[in-house]
Amino acid sequence: MRQSSVIARRLAAASVGLVVAAGAAACGPKDNDAKGAGGDSTPHKGGTLSVLNSDPQEDFDPARLYTSGGGNVPSLVFRTLTTRNREDGAAGTKVVPDLATDTGRPSQNATVWTYTLKKGLKYEDGTPITSADIKYGIERSFAPELSGGAPYLRDWLVGAADYQGPYKDKKGLAAIGTPDERTIVFHLNKPEGEFPYLATQTQFTPVPKAKDTGTKYEEHPISSGPYKVVENQNDGERLVLERNTNWSEDDQRKAYPDKIDVRSGLDSSVINQRLSASQGTDAAAVTTDTNLGPAELAKVTGDKELASRVGTGHFGYTNYIAFNPTVKPFDNVKVRQAISYAIDRSSVVNAAGGSALADPATTFLPNQKSFGYTPYDLFPAGRTGDAAKAEELLKEAGHPNGLTVTLTHSNSKDFETSPEIATAIQDALKKAGITVKLQGLEDNDYKDKIHSVKTEPGFFLAHWGADWPSGGPFLAPIFDGRQIVKDGANFNTGLLNDTSVNTEIDAINKLTDLDAAAERWGALDKKIGEQALTVPLFHPVYKRLYGKDVKNIVISDWTGVLDVSQVAVK
């Protein structure tokens, strides 16, 4: 369950490709009318929705996209076996059927998953969607020239580790069976109770083999959703979508607008200015990747009309301090505990933009039920830190006169791993006799350093976002010792290889009762937390403007952002 921090941050930012894209417990928008601003709040069909974004929707091919829950803009074109429930707040963390009649039928201890397609499914050209098309869509995602999607299938499917895709290996994957046109069966290497979550990824999109144009497929992918691509400029810088008249209507996508015009490459300040002014076509505009910053939020909060057009969302995401216990003095658990006690989360939250944009965290798992959130605070520091307790532990660790350490962070202005957060930590630890030297690196150098076992520092800032709302893709990549990568990108920051932890991860993965699994993930989070390998700092809160004519605002805890499949502009 590896996921690069680039992907994690992209998910958390909820770029166009994302549902998603970000965590604390939420019930959808808290400071706005959940159905939208304006007079008549009843949604109607018609009109054009504009999407104003910073990042282009590159690689608009279901094989190459890395999404959660099927993506935001992508899920308008690509349907998958399952998808996310399109409801506000916690209800939106549920996985529901999409092309399939149910979320999957497990057998043989969750190593075999069977799906049946709904009747009458069609592509944009009116031809039927078959199980063979879904199998082929998955197989082409293994082609090296179409890489970029989630890596799970290569790990999970029997015999898939070295598969190179249908262009080189026309035999296909024997692990995927299609006994008839509406049935598809997956054979896994090991039990995976969360397979229904994985089936929301765009790699499960049907692709008709006869229409596959390889690397050019992204220019005009064949739609199975409510909209089809009629224009794709500069690799996703501008995407124009229009109604797919052969869409087999589903119960998740409302598809109110007649047309969706996605324009990217815009400066974030320009996006917020345009949404704020809400003039002309911008009155019917939204963004799927641009948050309000602290200064912008202060301005918006003071304007009642603007404040009514702010959507508030949460996504499973944690910003934290990471320790490498192979580097002194962090090999001493008491030193790690001392730092845990010394942290001033109030100042960290302020550095992240204030309490409106960040919730303090004492657990590694986001505080949402679907993740298995179990409240705990193993090293209670209060709001401003417990310097006295930290000093006591330092003495026990053999540092009665304090110590000097180096904190590595990114110079990127992301309010997550950036200088503002590092400085807040530096100031808090100084009160406990810990002198912190700051090592700021350019973003690429920072990522290269912290994700290499050979160069990982002892004390650094990190963050993680989940591929779906469960404890599995949150805890396993960071704490499963079998996922330590010695010659590549490693995300097990504490280099933890605890047999009891690994065994519990395997045991939870066997569960197909996701509520029972969530409870176990929460207990495991607390058990790992006792080793003080991380210091959870905060979960981000996302606040985004939308145009004055946009209605039917739905923001789930799966995505943390406005769901474009639900909005109306008329």
TrEMBL record:
Keywords: Signal. This is ABC transporter substrate-binding protein. Gene3D superfamilies: Dipeptide-binding Protein, Domain 3 (3.10.105.10), Periplasmic binding protein-like II (3.40.190.10). CDD domains: PBP2_clavulanate_OppA2. It comes from Streptomyces chiangmaiensis. Residues 29-58 are annotated as: Disordered. SUPFAM superfamilies: Periplasmic binding protein-like II. Residues 1-26 form the signal peptide. Residues 94-482 form the Solute-binding protein family domain. The lineage of its organism: Bacteria, Bacillati, Actinomycetota, Actinomycetes, Kitasatosporales. The keyword Signal applies. The keyword Signal applies.
